[in-house]
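Bench notes, afternoon.
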Amino acid sequence: MKTFDEIIVQLIIQHDCVVIPEFGGFVTKAISSKIDYDKGIMSPPSKQLLFNIQLLNNDGLLTTEISSENKISYADASNEIIRKVNEYHAALKAGKKIIINKVGTFQRNQEGLLVFEQDRFFNFLMSSYGLGSVQFVPAEVIIKEEKVDQGKTQFWKYAAAACLLPIAFYSLWIPLKTNVLSSKMISIQDLNPFHKANKVNYKQIPFKSQVEKLTATHSSLDEQYKQADLQSDFWYYRYDEETSFTVRNEQEVLPLNLEGAISAYPEKKIEIINFNPSTYNCIVGSFSNLNNANLLVSKLKSKGYDARILPGGNLHRVSIGGGFSEESVNLLKSKAIQEGLNVWILH
């Protein structure tokens, strides 16, 4: 769970304006790199923070970020901001200093005005991530050494320039011309300005699929038929562990094998419905007793639904239709709910 200060820092890095409702807003300004020849310090590009006490309206940015990062509701995030702002106002009224880690400090001066001072040790500019100030030999020191030994002075001038030029070059080259900031990793090739990344070529290989012939692993059709509940309109035949068939009951014992059923009884219509286990189905009931499932199927058929019992599993699930995507069964689900049915989608 991220703290209030951490979320503020994160937003300032990503955005140019961050508002704390009823307290004020931070406005960022890009500052280019600087070289102080007197002190011998070269600073990388950075972001300067300005605080505007007139920015009081809630733009939703901070509230949404707190809600998202801490997995809380939008209302709870708003209450957290109100609580934090009340603490800030109470501390300022008591003459205390407010510190927001890595951002800066707030304090009222003798005239009662709110004064903000930015933390000078943290850089909010993403392109300067990991870059610090570079120190070199100041011009004042070089001038003093020149009076002592002109030859040594010239040497140190060239040495300082030789050190500074590569540092200045790579300070700009690495963040602008490599992916160090996005990958957060650096390789020896990133230091070579003449290195070109090899283009990756992909070769498309045609996909070949092999469909193996199914082999029945369960008892024969005749054995399962004898054990089925013949009082209902349907019973199901389990072909293997993953495949089952729903068979319409014609009140007559079928032959010993499924392949000869239609040829031996051409006058009988045997309807076999194979359910693809990857489809979506509208389920309106699930029963451990097959008779109860069959009663519900009959009732639903009288209302015009194409109801049937799904094979597989320990429970008998009653479906009123299915499809190959959740969107394709939403219309059927809405109709069933309007008629008072308790519907859920099985995938």
